[in-house]
C-alpha cells in the first residue's frame, strides 16, 4: 500500500501537490467566482457572519492559525483560533453571527467534537473542514468543506495540513465574495496564486530533498531545536517543532521570532540548532529584515542556523549555515511551501535514528478520548 515508498509519511509528503490541487478542484470558475454550494449554508447567513472562531488541535490548529492571517486580511472580520480543549471549558462568547470552523483530518477528535457541540448549543453555526467522509465531526456540524488529500495513514500529519490551509483559504475568499469585501479581480488573483502552489511544492520536494537529508545527517545528535518565524511563518515554525517532537523525539520549541529577546534567546548557546522561516524579501518586506536580524542575533550567540528562504534571497546566504530554498510566492501562500522542508527534515531525522516514522511511540492517529 505504500506504493514503493519507505513509509506512509514519505508517500504522503509526496502527495502534497495533489492534496492542494484536488482541494481546489471544482470549487471556483475561471472568472474567479467561488462556488461552495456543497457547504449548504445560505449565502445570507454567510453574509451576516461577524466573527470566526477556529477550533482544532495539533497540526489542524496550526493550519487555523495560518488561515487567521489570511482571512482577517481579506474579509476584515476577527478570526480567533483556539485549541478545542481550551475553548470548551472557558465559557467562550458565541452568537448566531459567529461562524465556528472546526478543522480535523480524522473527523473523530473528541476534543474538537466536544467543542463544536458546545458551539452549536450556544446557537453558533459550525462549518467543518475535514478529510474523512462521513466521520463524526462533519456529521455533527451544520456544514462541511472536505479536504481532498486522500487517506492519511502516518500519525504525523503532513498532506492534511496543506489541504486544510487551502480549504480555509477558500472559505475566506468565499466570505470575501459574499460580503463584497474584495473585488472579483483580487479574488481571482489569489485563486491563481493558490493554483500555482502545487507546482511550487513539487519543486521543493524535487530540489531540496538531498540538502535536507544532508542537514539531518549532520544534526542527528542534536539534543534540542528552536524554530522561529513571524506572521504566517510563526505557525509554520510551531508545526515544524511539533513534527520533530512527534517522530524524532527531540525537544523542540517553536515561537514567534519577535519573542526572542523576551526570553527564548537565553536558551541559545554554542551549537544550538535554530530553524528560521524567512518571509519573502521582495517588495521591501519589513518582516524580512526583522527575521534576518533575528538570525544574526542567535548566530552571534553561537547558534547553528538553518533557514527556509526564498530563492534569490541573497541576504540569507550571509547569515545562515544551511538554507532550504523555496520558490518565490506571496507571503500568505508561503506556508504551503515552507512546511515541506520541516516535514522532510523531521522524517529524515526519525529515519536516521532508526525510528518508526509512521507510528511514533505513545501517539494514536486520531485521539478519540477527551
Ligand atoms: O484528526 P485531527 O486533525 O483532528 O487531529 C488533530 C491532532 O491530533 C493532529 O493534528 C496531531 O497533532 C498530529 N499527530 C500532528 O502530526
Automatic annotation (TrEMBL):
Keywords: Aminotransferase, Cytoplasm, Glutamine amidotransferase, Repeat, Transferase
GO MF annotation: an example: glutamine-fructose-6-phosphate transaminase (isomerizing) activity
EC number: 2.6.1.16
Part of the whole protein covered: 259 to 628 of 628
Subcellular localization(s) per the UniProt record: Cytoplasm
Subunit structure: Homodimer.
Protein name: Glutamine--fructose-6-phosphate aminotransferase [isomerizing]
Domain SIS residues, every copy: 41-181, 215-360
Source organism: Alloscardovia venturai
Function: Catalyzes the first step in hexosamine metabolism, converting fructose-6P into glucosamine-6P using glutamine as a nitrogen source.
Amino acid at each position: 500500500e505504500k506504493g514503493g515508498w519507505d513509509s506512509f509519511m514519505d508517500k504522503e509528503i509526496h502527495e502534497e501537490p495533489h492534496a492542494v490541487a484536488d482541494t481546489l478542484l471544482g470549487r471556483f470558475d475561471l472568472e474567479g467566482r467561488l462556488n461552495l454550494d456543497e457547504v449548504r449554508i445560505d449565502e445570507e447567513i454567510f453574509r451576516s457572519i461577524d466573527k470566526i472562531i477556529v477550533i482544532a488541535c495539533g497540526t489542524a490548529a496550526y493550519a487555523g492559525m495560518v488561515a487567521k492571517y489570511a482571512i482577517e486580511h481579506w474579509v476584515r472580520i476577527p478570526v480567533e483560533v483556539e485549541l478545542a480543549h481550551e475553548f470548551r471549558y472557558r465559557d467562550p462568547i458565541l452568537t448566531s453571527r459567529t461562524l465556528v470552523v472546526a478543522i480535523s483530518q480524522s473527523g473523530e477528535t473528541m476534543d474538537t467534537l466536544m467543542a463544536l457541540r458546545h458551539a452549536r448549543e450556544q446557537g453558533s453555526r459550525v462549518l467543518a473542514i475535514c478529510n474523512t467522509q462521513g466521520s463524526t465531526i462533519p456529521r455533527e456540524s451544520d456544514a462541511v468543506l472536505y479536504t481532498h488529500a486522500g487517506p492519511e495513514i502516518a500519525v504525523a500529519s503532513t498532506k492534511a495540513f496543506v489541504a486544510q490551509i487551502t480549504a480555509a483559504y477558500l472559505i475566506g475568499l468565499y466570505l470575501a465574495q459574499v460580503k463584497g469585501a474584495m473585488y472579483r479581480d483580487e479574488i481571482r488573483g489569489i485563486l491563481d496564486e493558490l493554483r500555482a502552489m502545487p507546482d511550487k511544492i513539487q519543486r521543493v520536494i524535487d530540489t531540496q530533498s538531498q540538502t535536507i537529508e544532508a542537514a539531518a545527517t549532520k544534526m542527528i545528535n542534536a539534543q534540542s531545536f528552536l524554530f522561529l518565524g513571524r506572521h504566517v511563518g510563526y505557525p509554520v515554525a510551531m508545526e515544524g517543532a511539533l513534527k520533530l517532537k512527534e517522530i524524532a523525539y527531540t525537544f523542540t520549541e517553536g515561537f514567534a521570532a519577535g519573542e526572542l529577546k523576551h526570553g527564548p534567546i537565553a536558551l541559545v548557546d554554542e551549537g544550538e540548532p535554530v530553524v528560521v522561516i524567512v518571509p519573502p524579501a521582495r517588495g521591501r518586506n519589513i518582516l524580512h529584515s526583522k527575521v534576518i536580524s533575528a538570525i544574526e542575533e542567535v548566530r552571534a550567540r553561537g547558534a547553528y542556523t538553518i533557514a527556509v528562504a526564498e530563492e534569490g534571497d541573497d541576504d540569507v546566504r550571509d547569515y545562515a549555515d544551511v538554507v532550504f530554498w523555496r520558490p518565490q510566492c506571496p507571503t500568505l501562500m508561503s506556508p504551503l511551501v515552507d512546511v515541506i522542508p520541516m516535514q522532510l527534515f523531521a522524517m529524515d531525522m526519525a529515519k536516521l535514528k532508526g525510528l518508526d516514522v509512521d507510528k511514533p511511540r505513545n501517539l494514536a492517529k486520531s485521539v478519540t478520548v477527551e
